[in-house]
Amino acid sequence: MDVKDFSYDLPEELIAQDPLEKRSNSRLMVLDKENGGVTHRHFYDIGEYLLPGDCLVINNTRVIPARLFGVREKTGGQVELLLLKRREGDVWETLARPGKKARVGEKLSFGDGMLRAEVIGIADEGNRLVRFFYQGIFEEILDQLGQMPLPPYITHELKDRERYQTVYAKYDGSAAAPTAGLHFTEELLERLRDAGVVIAQITLHVGLGTFRPVKAKKVQDHHMHAEYFEITGEAAAAVNRAKAEGHRVICVGTTSTRTLESAAAQDGTLSAASGWTDIFIYPGYEFKVVDGLITNFHLPESTLIMLVSALAGRENVMAAYREAVKERYRFFSFGDAMLILDTSKKNCDPKE
Questions:
Q1: Does residue 28 sit in the same domain as residue 173?
Q2: What DSSP string runs through 94-156?
Q3: pLDDT(224) > 80
């Protein structure tokens, strides 16, 4: 399968630069995964497509202000670190710019010495292993000095950090937001619960590997970076109960999807679990757990659009993306949403 099969033309002006004033006012494209049919709605309408007993799985990871700007102590030269994942204690795997200057042994300073660091090794793809030195609590210092790690295609300044967090973000650890969840408000989630939708929370700390371009020509030659996940016994039980009772499991985001599919037994059942996953889902994959997906519109030739295509069919997805461009949907992290599921079953009463 050729990576180019997942390409599409996107006018630059359709890349959303800012979040909407109200999260749930984003547009919603509903894609029937069985026949490719498309319906245009708004995100606040999503309850019309979810049934009592359906299990909605959300990722409660929280983005850390992982971008640090500082200097090299020896020369005063500028340096930028992006924290990717904590290896152990105060050692982090980071993306350093300029990478050639961040040699092993190089000492760095941030916030006039409030936070100091030393490059102690080189990991995969040139990422730097860095040990931090500080007085106090690392998370508090990071909150003071760090900036939110917005994707490079967002050039506008983010005025409110919380707009790059879901309203249910709980556990620090991500280098990027699980953006499908940005559309939910507390009120919308409460309305879904009142309508009988079960909401299960899992955790996957999003790394930048998910968003890196696929450099291989053939899809199957690409290798995913590992990301840490946790599934509680409560979440596993909620998913298992929904499946056993004939209800649907609908994931909010590709991160939730990858977590469930990584941890599921061959028969689709889940148990409490934690660990690292590098699962790569692309067309031909047979889903064990997930019936539906809420997601954003993704970059061309990305692993994310490949996962979506595995669920709904490549031709259906690429046709839907062409329709989204034609209808001027907003794309990527702060953009509009897509709901993928079998739409033959849905609530008829819009108030539900």
A1: yes
A2: EEEESGGG--TT-EEEETTTTEEEEEEEE-GGGPEEEEEEESS-HHHHHHHH-B----TT--S
A3: yes
